[in-house]
Each structure stands twice: as structure tokens, then as C-alpha cells.
Write a structure and sequence with these properties.
Length: 333
């Protein structure tokens, strides 16, 4: 059963021009001149119950705008959406009970209140009865550890705690769908891993349908079987993670700083080495190359000062998708 059905969805923003004069700001209040910015163009997709779909794209691609339309925060310029059979624009109240939403970049909790008070307000907003509320507190203390910081004002929580607190808030009314916009952003390695495990449990054991935006390919690999990739508001790929990996090979990256300009020797397993001054960047396929053997080889190029591991840039992924597309390898949607 499809729980999200989107057809030819489009969102244009009007950006009003500011007049360049001494009274520019005032004049622009009266000016009708504006530019259109197409944030989402003609998206069509369906998401089935219980899926965990990764929604990828570079900054400004239109991911958040899509999620805001699915959740009824923004109105589409054209196209249709149904979520659990409801229109987010016309039946927002009914729909509100069916989904929970987390924006990793900002909290939806009350900053100065103890977490428990925020939950209490949400409980009343969603009309959750006391028994279900107690079950909620128990369940998410167990899964998210919220009991530890229920009495702490939200502003005093660590980022990892705040993210877990926000996720629990999105679950207070036991929704069937979760829209998660960068739920691991800014977290350290340990907190990220914990968040991923929690999301996996929500998806696999509690059967929540998840639409997840992230810039972290590890999140996607761990959680999602399916990925949708969007660029400039347009869907450029919708397929399984396996298909994506096969098509583009998802390179990982190591940046190595040397004391002097490195004496680079060819590496069999690496895909690409670029050198700029005393820095070398190596793109490699982590499924084929072991990092220790790569580092051992790189260590022979000169004296190492610093090593940074990085995930592939989203731009590189997009570039490869376009390349596969023009090579006729990938069917775009
Ligand atoms: N309220 C708005 N008014 C005007 N333009 C907007 C508005 N909201 C978003 N945009 C523009 O729409 C485009 C898509 O933005 P959106 O936030 O959906 O991207 P995103 O894929 O979520 O990016 P990021 O990964 O940086 O969060 C961007 O060019 C953005 O500047």
C-alpha cells in the first residue's frame, strides 16, 4: 500500500527585488517586481508503507521544500499530494495525527522549558490520553534514553540529546510516517551511530515509514534500501541503493597533508589522486580498498602531517549520476 503519493509536484517561490536606492527597503514594500525561483519541479513518486527512503541532493536541491509540502507547511504551486489518503493542504488537521517531523537544524521544542513540559504541551495538542502518554515515556526512555534529561531545559541539552528529544516529540502521537530532515546533522560519530540504530529500530520493528534527508551516505547505507536523488528541484534518480552504488561506485575520500610536496606513486586500487601543493586527495572505493593498506601505500609518498577521511561530496555523486545517465547506464525518472 502506498502511503505517500505525489504527482507532478511543483513549488515556485516569488523573490521580491529590492530597489537599489536610499529608500530601497521601503520602496520594495510597494514594488510588485519579483523573480520566480523554482524549488521543486514536477516531482512524481510513491512511497509504500514501511519503506525507509533516502532523499538526497546537494544544498538547495529542494529536499526541505518537498518535505514541507508533504507535511502541509507549504502549499504547492501545482501538482497533488496524498499522505495516508489525506491532502496535506486541505486536511492538515487529520493528517497531523499520521506523521511526525524532525528538522535536525532546529528544534521544535520549547527552548526554555524542561523537556517534560514540552512533551506535556504536545500531549495536549495531539490529545494523547494519559495511558498512551505513559507508554510513550516508557517506550522512548527505553529506546532514546529521554528519561535521563526529562527535567532539563531544552537549551541545556547536548546536540545528541536534543536530537533524540526532538525525535521522541515527533513520536508522541504514535504516527505511522516520519519525515526526517537531516536528523544526524552535526552529531559526533558516537551520537550518529546511536541515532542510526534508533531509526533502524523505528523502521524495522515499529514499522514506521520514513522519508529521510541527509548529506551522510553512511546514514543512507545503514538505513535505506531505496534512494531518490534530486537536483535543482528535479528527480534525477529513484531506485535501490544497490543500483545507485553499482552505477556510481560511491567513492570515499581521504585527504592527506604532507610535510612537503608528496612523491606520488600510482595506486592500483584508488580511483583518482589529485595533488595540490603539499596535499593529496585520494578517491577510493571502500568496498574494494582497505583503508589501512591505502594509508600504508600513501605513507611512502612523504612525511605525513594530517589525514582526513571524508564521505563523497554530494556534488560528486550527482556528477556521477549525470555521467551514468549520459553513458546510457542509468534510467532517470
Ligand atoms: N521561503 C523561500 N523563499 C524563497 N526561496 C526559497 C524559500 N525556501 C527555499 N527556497 C529556495 O528553494 C531552493 C530549495 O531549497 P530547499 O531548502 O528545499 O533545499 P534543500 O535541498 O533542502 O537544501 P539543504 O540541503 O541546503 O537543506 C533553494 O534555492 C532555496 O534558496
Amino acid at each position: 500500500m502506498n502511503v505517500i503519493v505525489v504527482k507532478e509536484l511543483r513549488k515556485e517561490f516569488k523573490i521580491y527585488k529590492t530597489k537599489k536606492s536610499r529608500f530601497g527597503a521601503v520602496l520594495s514594500l510597494f514594488s510588485r517586481e519579483y523573480e520566480r525561483k523554482v524549488a521543486v519541479r514536477d516531482l512524481t513518486f510513491q512511497i509504500g508503507e514501511g519503506e525507509c527512503v533516502g532523499y538526497l541532493g546537494p544544498n538547495g536541491a529542494g529536499k526541505s521544500t518537498t518535505i514541507k509540502m508533504l507535511s502541509g507547511i507549504l502549499h504547492p504551486t501545482s501538482g497533488t499530494i496524498t499522505v495516508m489518503g489525506y491532502s496535506p493542504q486541505e486536511e492538515r488537521k487529520k493528517l497531523a495525527r499520521q506523521f511526525g517531523i524532525v528538522f535536525g537544524q532546529r528544534t521544535q521544542l520549547w527552548w526554555d522549558l524542561p523537556l517534560r513540559d514540552s512533551y506535556d504541551i504536545l500531549r495536549q495538542m495531539y490529545k494523547v490520553d494519559q495511558r498512551s502518554y505513559r507508554q510513550f515515556l516508557d517506550r522512548y526512555d527505553h529506546l532514546l534514553g529521554i528519561g535521563e534529561f526529562l527535567e532539563t531545559p531544552v537549551r541545556k541539552l547536548s546536540l545528541g540529546q536534543r536530537m533524540r528529544a526532538d525525535l521522541a516529540a515527533a513520536l508522541i502521537h504514535d504516527p505511522r510516517i516520519l519525515f526526517l530532515d537531516e536528523p544526524t546533522i552535526g552529531l559526533d560519530v558516537v551520537a550518529k551511530k546511536r541515532m542510526r540504530e534508533i531509526l533502524k529500530e523505528l523502521n524495522e520493528k515499529q514499522k514506521k515509514t520514513i522519508l529521510l534527508t541527509t548529506h551522510d551516505m553512511d546514514d543512507i547505507e545503514y538505513l535505506c534500501d531505496r534512494v531518490m536523488v534530486i537536483n535543482h528541484g528535479k528527480m534525477i534518480m529513484d531506485g535501490t541503493l544497490g543500483e545507485l552504488q553499482k552505477m556510481i561506485g560511491l567513492p570515499s575520500m581521504i585527504r592527506v597533508k604532507f610535510k612537503d610536496r608528496p612523491r606520488v606513486k600510482p595506486l592500483d586500487l584508488s580511483e583518482k589522486v589529485t595533488v595540490q601543493g603539499d596535499e593529496a586527495t585520494i578517491l577510493y572505493d571502500r568496498h574494494k580498498t582497505s583503508v589501512p593498506s591505502l594509508l600504508a601505500a600513501v605513507g611512502e609518498w612523504g612525511e605525513l602531517l594530517d589525514i582526513q577521511m571524508a564521505e563523497p561530496e554530494m556534488e560528486e555523486i550527482i556528477r556521477r549520476i549525470y555521467q551514468s545517465e549520459s553513458d546510457g547506464l542509468l534510467k532517470t525518472v
